[in-house]
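Here is an idea for our session: we take a single protein and study its fold together. To get us started, please write out a protein record for me. Once you have written the record down, we can walk along the chain together.
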Amino acid sequence: MAGGFLGKTLAAVSLSVALASVTVKSLGSCSVAACRNSLSSCRFHVNSNIMSGFNGTKENSHNKARTSPYPGSKVQRSQVPNDKVDWLVEWHDYNPVEYTAVSVLAGPQWADPQITESNFSPKFNEKDGQVERKSQNGLYEVKNGRPRNPAGRTGLVGRGLLGRWGPNHAADPIITRWKRDRSGNKITHPISGKNILQFVAIKRKDCGEWAIPGGMVDPGEKISATLKREFGEEALNSLQKSSAEKRELQEKLQKLFNQEHLVIYKGYVDDPRNTDNAWMETEAVNYHDETGEIMDNLTLEAGDDAGKVKWMDISDKLKLYASHAQFIKSVAEKRDAHWSKDSETGCPG
């Protein structure tokens, strides 16, 4: 009873701050196991940092995770109306489609076995060997041996294209510079009067949408290493470089990634690959080249999962993959750069 009540309470917490930086912290000295068994022995503090421009409604926070067909397939999700997304809303007739891609079922190194396999006993909500099964958004509920998406129902169970049951951790490096004229002067927007910021964007091969470079965190890998590796692979085509070229590239990247940076977002991502039992989480970090000198010495070249790569002006006209536009908007606000023709970039009152 206590475990079920805890799960419902945590689901309510996560849903109220979906697409927010949410941290569920134990204020006592209790362990995760103790928290599972008793709510009274542990108190939780929720620190939510709603991303700018996001109003917290279910329609916006959990929309792409309910779209059909499922990416890379013809699978149609069961339709989930807005008022039935929340796990706390009883829905006895809920009958989601079961789907896990063949590429995942083939058992690659980056994927978990099926939950029914006798030799597979994942430790959800914990560091499971080298695999991080803790969520950036705190504890998530596990029901009938399967983790539950903390943002709610998606109309599909299984893992889809995702390798891990529960959170699948990614890292998104947002590399920016100021847009400049031929004389090297910063270009300001004629209406907002703010300097125009640019970021490195890639065009994904899988869906054709423009996005922030990024990818999955390998087991045991530090986020900082993932950020640098993914940018090199997707925006600089490092995988196809010679050993000497790779060394030179790493030296230049080291200057960029060793400087001060801004953590833009940590947590759940509204992603079309999400299911009821597997979902994307990311850490988006902004590395800014103030003078432009570092990036001027690096030639953009699409590689790995990227079909194209280019510098893209930041504005509210951007149409990007998953929740990436929200991340970019947050960067513009933090850098006091142009976002929209309105003079203010903050949330509407």
